[in-house]
Amino acid sequence: MLKPFFLTKILECGCDEAGRGCLAGPVTASSVILPFHFNNSLLNDSKKLTEKTREKLRKIIENEALTYAVTHIEPFEIDEINILNASIKAMQECVVKLDPKPSAVIIDGNAPFIPKRGIIKKGVKIFTEEEIRFLSTLPNASIIKGDGKYLSIAAASVLAKTYRDEYMNRIHEEFPMYNWKKNKGYPTQEHREAIKKYGVTKYHRMSFRLLPEQLSLDL
Q1: Nearest CA among 169, 162, 186 for reference residue 68
Q2: Mean pLDDT of 168-191
Q3: SS (H, E, C) the chain
Q4: pTM here?
Q5: What is the pLDDT of residues 48-100, one digit of tens each?
Q6: CA proximity to 199, closest of 182, 179, 176, 218
Q7: Which residues does 158 contact at the CB level (< 8 Å), separation at least 6?
Q8: Of 25, 18, 21, which Cα lies nearest the Cα of 181?
């Protein structure tokens, strides 16, 4: 049974991301504040759930959450600031979108929600001074395997996964030869064979090793 809160009696939001290890597509994050009374025996780390269960839970979370947000960080920005920073920035963007605002944040993993150098501001989205002050003073904790321990992080993992899958299904129609509808941009043999045959697209992450033997990739 997942725990309802890391800190009690405050508006605590959970954050998680999906797509960090992919060769194509965005890294997608979500943040969720659940009501104090929320409970659902199906909710768990999205990787442990079937697609059907994830879609069922997505509707429940969207209907019952006090607030939630989803952010995509596109490949060109991932290439600019690196995938770790992009994942953290996506979560930071989600948190500032929430209404009501959380009093604390818990995220999945061991990376700090606020890196030592501060709020991540590079790229298309530049945080306002008010948003920077809010994020900088927000109590937060990084929890290893938190998506399998806390309901709010698990809920965020479900939204991040389902929204990203939806995105990949959509761009699959534009470039069906990569079969993103099935592999979701992950480095499967099929995906890499398609890159070798057809080259790269605007959705590929050029800072990643797209082919195992890659030294450079002609554009």
Answers
A1: 162
A2: 97
A3: CCECCCCCCCCEEEEEEECCCCCECCEEEEEEECCCCCCCCCCCCHHHCCHHHHHHHHHHHHHHCCEEEEEEECHHHHHHHCHHHHHHHHHHHHHHHCCCCCCEEEEECCCCCCCCCCCCCCCCCCCCHHHHHHHHCCCEEEECCHHHCEHHHHHHHHHHHHHHHHHHHHHHCCCHHHCHHHHCCCCCHHHHHHHHHHCCCCCECCCCCCCCCCCCCCC
A4: 0.93
A5: 999 999 999 999 999 999 999 999 999 999 999 999 999 999 999 999 999 99
A6: 218
A7: 43, 46, 49, 54, 57, 58, 61
A8: 25
Q: Let me know if 212 is exposed, middle or buried by CB neighbors in 10 A (0-12, 13-18, 19+).
A: exposed
